[in-house]
Design brief:
By secondary structure, this protein is an all-alpha fold. The chain has 8 helices and no strands.
Length: 176
C-alpha cells in the first residue's frame, strides 16, 4: 500500500518539474508512447526509492520533534552540498540530458527516464526526507513540496540557499 501511495504522490509532486524534459522528448519523437516510457522509467526510480523509504516512514511515525528537527537540519545541510548543486544543474538542463543521454527505441526511452529520475532523486532527496518527517500524506506539505521542487527546477534563479535557510529556521522553530 505504501509503495502505491508513495509512487502516486511522487508522480504528482515531481512530474511538474520534469515537464520540460517530457516536452523535449515529445518534440523530437512526436510519440506519446515513447514519452510515456520516459515517464515510466522516471517513476521506476522513484518507486525504488519508495522501497528504501518504507522503513523510514515507520521511523518518523510518531517519533517526536527531535527526529523532525534532525531531518529538517539534514535537509538544510543537503541543500548546500556540492552533490545537490550538481544534481540540480542536471535537472535544470533537460536539453543536455536529451542531447547526451538519447537512445532510440523503447529501452532508450526507459533509460532516459530512469537517468532523469536518478538526477531528480539526487536533487530532491533532502527535501524528500523533510517531507517524510513532516508527514508525507499531508496535502498541505505535499502541495508546498510540489511548488518548491517545481520552482527550484524551473525558476531562473537558484533557490537552494533560501530553501536551506527556510529548512534551518524550521528546524530551530521545532526545536524551541
Amino acid at each position: 500500500m505504501f509503495l502505491a501511495v508513495w509512487t502516486g504522490s511522487m508522480a504528482a509532486m515531481m512530474l511538474p518539474g520534469t515537464v520540460p524534459l517530457l516536452r523535449l522528448d515529445y518534440a523530437v519523437t512526436r510519440s506519446r508512447a515513447r514519452t510515456a516510457l520516459v515517464v515510466a522509467g522516471y517513476l521506476a526510480v522513484w518507486a525504488a526509492l519508495g522501497l528504501a523509504a518504507l522503513p523510514l516512514d515507520g521511523v518518523f511515525m510518531g517519533r517526536g520533534r527531535w527526529l523532525l528537527v534532525a531531518a529538517l537540519g539534514a535537509a538544510a545541510a543537503y541543500q548546500l552540498s556540492p552533490l545537490k548543486r550538481r544534481c540540480l544543474a542536471r535537472c535544470r538542463a533537460p536539453l543536455g540530458r536529451v542531447l547526451h543521454g538519447w537512445r532510440d527505441g523503447a529501452l532508450g526511452a526507459l533509460r532516459l527516464g530512469a537517468a532523469n529520475g536518478v538526477w531528480c532523486v539526487g536533487c530532491c532527496v533532502g527535501l524528500t526526507v523533510a517531507l517524510l518527517a513532516l508527514g508525507m500524506m499531508s496535502p498541505h506539505w505535499m502541495a508546498a513540496f510540489t511548488v518548491v521542487v517545481t520552482a527550484e527546477k524551473t525558476a531562473p534563479v537558484l533557490l537552494s540557499q533560501p530553501l536551506a535557510t527556510g529548512l534551518a529556521i524550521g528546524a530551530v522553530a521545532w526545536a524551541v
